[in-house]
Design a protein that fits this description.
The complex is a heterodimer of chains A (261) and B (265). Chain A is an all-alpha fold and 261 residues long. Chain A has one domain: Orthogonal Bundle (MetI-like fold). Chain A is built from eleven helices and no strands. The longest helix of chain A has 39 residues. Chain B is built from eight helices and ten strands. In chain B, the strands form two sheets. A six-stranded mixed sheet of chain B has the order 6-7-8-3-9-10, sandwiched between helices. In chain B, strands 2-1-4-5 form a four-stranded antiparallel sheet, covered by helices on one side. The longest helix of chain B is centred in the C-terminal third of the chain and has 18 residues. Chain B starts with a strand and ends with a helix. Chain B is α/β, with parallel strands linked by helices and 265 residues long. Chain B has two domains: 150 residues, 3-Layer(aba) Sandwich (Rossmann fold), CATH 3.40.50.300; 83 residues, P-loop containing nucleotide triphosphate hydrolases (Rossmann fold, 3-Layer(aba) Sandwich), CATH 3.40.50. Chain B is 34% helix and 23% strand. Classes of the chains: A mainly alpha (261), B alpha/beta (265). Chains A and B meet through helix 7 and helix 8 of A and strand 6 of B.
Amino acid sequence: MMPSTLHRVAPWATALVLVALWWVGVKLFHVESYILPTPFEAVQALVAYRAALLHHGLATLSTTLIGFALAVAFGLCLGILVGTFRIAYSALYPILIAFNSVPKAALVPILVIWFGAGTVPAVATAFMLSFFPVIVNVATGFATIEPELLDVLRSLGASRFDMVAKIGFPRSLPYFFASLKIAITLAFVGSVIAEIVAGNAGIGNVMLVASSSFNVPLVFAALIVVGIMGVGMYAIFALFETRFASWSARGAGGIERMGGG
Amino acid sequence: MSYIQIEAVDLHYRRHRHEHVAAGVFALSQANLSVGQGEFAAIVGPSGCGKSTLLKLIAGLVRPTHGSVKVGGKEVTQPLKRVGMAFQNATLLPWRSIRDNVLLPLEIVEPFRSQQRRERSEHRERAEMLLKSVGLAGFGPRMPWELSGGMQQRAQLCRALVHDPAILLLDEPFGALDAFTREELWAVLQALWIERRFTVILVTHELREAAYLADKVHVMCARPGSVTASCAVPFSRPRSLETTFAPDFVALVHDLRSSIGEAAA
């Protein structure tokens, strides 16, 4: 088999193996379906509740994307600020670290008190969970610029804006796109958590209702939906990355290739 | 009167803002240097003697603690705008093609900057001509990582010269290259300089390189750094590799070596 075909097949093969293990485990130990359903039962639930899952899936997707978009805009601005000005770094970084250490699930009830149950807390939680990697990565891209390069530009009389536009921003793009892949998955985690705690729509809400009525196959069907949406969005941003920052990935398979000689 | 004039310059780096000056690092002490317009000057000396700092002073990237740095009769108080710099690392932007790397200064320096849209094709031609003159014809569309180290240094030279700078500052630009590539690039640099006659200050620790390229070699000593000897190089241009094997060339390099030995003692 060609190596490229092998790479394309590999993730599906891993998924199949995991599903098979799941199935064999359930059958072997005679687990009841209200504790752990078989993959087949999960898929059955997926088909049976497809209309509801589609509706709530789209609700989760839209809150996630809104929160994610806000996080990207906010993270990009703050990342550039923190990466460009030392004083911004000193002033903001400790606060950001402190904020990122707070478990966001604990904040959802407060958000509900402020904004009421529904979409806003979910968007806010998705935002809070996903902006941090964007800031850190963009700031890293700026902070690791070679000092000689800045000397070249300064000796040409370049303004600070020139340096950000010509060097800082393009240089941090690979870091930025890498952070998007992490941030989108975290945004899903955030919105689903908020929906579980205080939603009236969305996949998280479906899971809450289903588990309170011991409809565990439906819980798993909902998990599959979240997983598929997560992988889908990840794939989209991975595509962005190869399209806009391909220069940084010139040695694809770097270590493997270097080691193999 | 000299074009670049450094007089009695002291420079202390303070590691912390509130640290007393004397507790910081003495990079330069009572350093003097004068370079005429269109002259090719080389600065040699042991590592850590403040050679690179001297370049930054001339470019206006750092200010002296005491003393004066003048270029063209004017005190340098901010980064000079028409300087070209090149370093040991090629520092090409990996996301730009070789040609776009060479064009970078034209996107920043006036008057090129405001002509960018109208004269795009002229600028491109300018870059291609320069690339051709250093032996990189046809490499414009390539990406930096596709080029060898020596080729990247050629491209860096083009970037440093594309905006017709009055001064070219070179900080060990050939230091990381193998001996043969280095000698090839000496010839390339000499040809460019003979054609354009910009003022060059080349920092290097390779004495043959200094003697091959420069009109005048300045020797620095370390801690605190200052210029201890200056020595004119009389050989006619263009010099070739043959020149470097002539007895008086070898004698000159020998002299330079012993003056560095004295400076270190």
